């Protein structure tokens, strides 16, 4: 290639040299750069880089004499939704060009986005289906693999029931894949179907939806350009969402805005802040209450906004009164004067926005945290306008869409829940009888009971079945179907190993083997199915700001990989064949794929989206037809950078639309609703994307109205609060007469009554919109959410806290049950109290810019892997000095729940980035497990270039009471020199 | 003719490394060779600042001055390129370069390092534009296609600018005036013997 060298020698060296980085002390990027200084790299430093050179030029150069096709797709890494323009020649992806037309990324990428082309060259992808035979990977055909899997699934179903199979889906699915997977699980007859949202923003969804209606980012990345003050709390977008920083820094520069970062760690984002507040991990609520204390004390709150649009703020005042500056400083370590300054900026230099990520959510108090954040926004009137809002940065590229489509143990697609109404609605959409759906489940009760979340799957394998003290379903998990999910992303990995080893069947369907394939000592009944990336198929994905973007297939699936649609379609067929062999009447394929267009053994993405458009009414996923989405991708340059609105020079069929038709996009595609850029924005007509807070929680509580008071969206005929619309409300207002004959007939077919969300004709939405009224009602947001364990958030010490003196005053919640399982947080906290002296350092985890999620895909990408070759732990110089630990040296880290004598071995990065008493590890590594190198357990040639210890081998017990979100941000550890 | 330069706004750089992988992607640069890299100063401390570095395509380039075989040449756009067929891998340019740009495939002394490799400003080498021979030795030639270097085009926060020196200096000037601060065009005094006056 670039450097002439003997091919044969280089070929042999490539692997060896890649590994050399691990074993011969290849320096991590940060340490390397530190030592190298700025001007000139010493040759000694150069020598430490594992050198290897030649790789056959498979792709380039682009032959400019031959035609090049340009295809647009969306980056498959984070939720920003950067457009990727691929240059394809001869069926090969030969180049990547910047996409200046995209209003989201304007040509730019981060390290991951700029290297996605490598994913479909994929040296280290799974190339064909495989299974473990006596501990060795053996190649097989798709038909044989699916046949055996179908057999084993039916065996489990027969012996243990449908709930014994865990369907783990993915935030990397397209919307269509996510929806199909949820539907698949429903037809299998279980609610045990989950995905990564459980471990990233499940608490956001629960907390925010319980506050004002929808659990999603209220504004957008672009809209941050309008903010005058922004607080980034519990997030590091400079590494996790780098392209978002383009908007954040532009806003900061253009408005001379305040950019405040509140975090235990001085992150790369904090380096660009105007104010940095270092807190003790796990004290978010005292910080927010401490800010509100100053706000209420000085009368900086938005009194009119609270009066019109917020319920229960007085209950918050009572709690906030306890958080005097002295108490806040005692608990969080933040001086009162600094917090006063931040509070004043946030409340008085408006518009203000609060940006958060997993630092807020991955906590035992995650739901309460995001509730407190939302309440701060409400108290200062910073919701529903430009430059304000809860700018929640989601994680994976389609975690928003996969959440919306109910890859979730608590809901059917589009947040309908699991009650009878929900099942009846979706049965109608699917064209099957409700009774036939009940027959697929163990019982109607199980059909309406939330399933087991991914944070606890291994407990569901190993825990005794007992409705009071153990697992509350017929039998344990016996089989696990893992589509697009890493095995190192869930806490308590030593326990996970035990669970995985006990499973009768483990199927990993993924472009890469993932940690699941190697973590446990399985020798049989383990299958790998090669699934292609989203670049090798079609489909839409929803970015964090709810904009939906259509990705077109760049190249055909490489090797023998298939897309998710085909894998599911053929798996359904294999299950049917196995059922037939057993003389069972159970069938999947004909019913699941009934109304879908099947082409080449797979349903088309377009036909799946059309089915979504018919059914996902509650979230306004109905106006985004494939045709409209494709037009948006085609005319990206016509959308305004800040307002995201298609300008006057745009073609008529998209003019006035918001980019990507951010949901809710009400009604039928032909109505041309523009989508909703900013949620709950009363300054716009509902037909123009305006809205109100949703009336989800009734009309009054204890004699106090829950409906808005004198606030309404622009042009509304109802000038006060109103409940959500049903046929009964329509009749009372006399608006039912305005329904067309066709709409009336449709409602009649449904049994004569419907709510706005179950009315398949969408007549209720159409008529209410004509009156300028929001079909979902116009209510107050709830500062007091009485249905949650803590209606008003209160501080609770982490389960494993070094401040054992605070446990008595701020204990975790009492032991309880949820999701068919016990949650014994308090028992563990009481035990942890005695362990704390032996584990004096707080351990937190987070993200690196080069890697994504569990990291298998990105650690297999040679352009990314080169930049980050070692798993490390950040440790403060004071803690390092007292332990005799030097920068770059190996250290052993162990946690209070690890098996006796075990530890993880990582490199020390001695830095002031973390405070004294705090350590931090990235969570993307796997392949070493408690000092065991598992490289040999990967199928040959599919091992990631970089392996390392997983932080989750050290992390501990701790689950949010509402969503069973795991605690990854605060636990304890001990570190010693290796 | 334009005078092509790089300009790095260190107040914007977040060390996302997009420039690094964009370069790898576009030029198929092998493992171990880093034509561009991001350096962070005061890592983890207040005042932390990141700088993306590659060959700056200097005025009167010092690498060219010390090269014993005169393998360097400057294009009409003032891009500093070199001829690998002439390079003897002596490493003098590495010592002369104030930015650490030259890279070598092997470690060793006196010509055993292999042919020097460095940022070409995505302008290829002496062979015919966009020929296979050019790509194999030097990587892409975007300049010949009328495009700018991919590292700058893909920079996540638009911290790294590439293009005609006057144009990018003006973009930076306006940016600094609007926001009220700016650490200056990093490396310009060394590379181009001038600074961007605000």
Commentary on this structure:
The complex is a heterodimer of chains A (978) and B (198). With 978 residues, chain A is α/β, with parallel strands linked by helices. Chain A contains 34 helices and 34 strands. A seven-stranded mixed beta sheet of chain A has the order 5-4-16-15-14-6-7, with helices on one face. A six-stranded mixed barrel of chain A has the order 26-30-27-29-28-34. Chain A is globular and about 75 Å long. In chain A, 64% of the residues are buried. Chain B has one domain (4-192): Alpha-Beta Plaits (2-Layer Sandwich). In chain B, 26% of the residues lie in helices and 13% in strands. Chain B has helices at 18-27, 62-66, 92-96, 132-138, 150-153, 165-179, 188-192, and strands at 4-8, 37-41, 49-53, 72-74, 80-82, 160-164. Chain B has a two-stranded antiparallel sheet with strand order 1-6. The chains are: A alpha/beta (978), B alpha+beta (198). Chains A and B meet through helix 1, helix 2, helix 3, strand 3 and helix 9 of A and helix 1, strand 2, strand 3, helix 4 and helix 6 of B.
Write the layout of secondary structure elements.
The complex is a heterodimer of chains A (978) and B (198).
Chain A lengths: L6 H17 L5 H8 L6 H5 L21 E6 L8 E7 L2 E6 L32 E4 L2 E4 L2 H19 L4 E4 L6 H14 L4 E2 L2 H4 L1 H11 L16 E5 L3 H4 L3 H11 L3 E6 L11 E4 L5 H15 L4 H7 E2 L1 H8 L4 H8 L3 H13 L3 E5 L1 H4 L4 H14 L9 E4 L6 H6 L15 H11 L3 H7 L3 H4 L9 H6 L16 E5 L9 H10 L2 E6 L5 H4 L6 E5 L8 E4 L5 E4 L12 H18 L7 H4 L5 E2 L2 E2 L1 H11 L10 H9 L65 E2 L2 E2 L21 H7 L7 H9 L13 H8 L10 E2 L33 E3 L2 E3 L1 H11 L5 E6 L9 H4 L2 H4 L6 E4 L1 H6 L7 E5 L9 E7 L7 E5 L4 E3 L2 E2 L14 E2 L21 E7 L1
Parallel strand pairs in A: 6-7, 6-14, 8-9, 8-12, 9-10, 11-23, 12-13, 14-15, 15-16, 26-30, 27-29, 31-33
Antiparallel strand pairs in A: 1-2, 2-3, 4-5, 4-16, 17-18, 19-20, 21-22, 24-25, 26-34, 27-30, 28-29, 28-34, 31-32
Chain B lengths: L3 E5 L9 H10 L9 E5 L7 E5 L8 H5 L5 E3 L5 E3 L9 H5 L35 H7 L11 H4 L6 E5 H15 L8 H5 L6
Antiparallel strand pairs in B: 1-6, 2-3, 4-5
Protein name (chain B): 4Fe-4S dicluster domain-containing protein
Pfam families (chain B): Fer4, Fer4_6
Keywords (chain B): 4Fe-4S, Iron, Iron-sulfur, Metal-binding
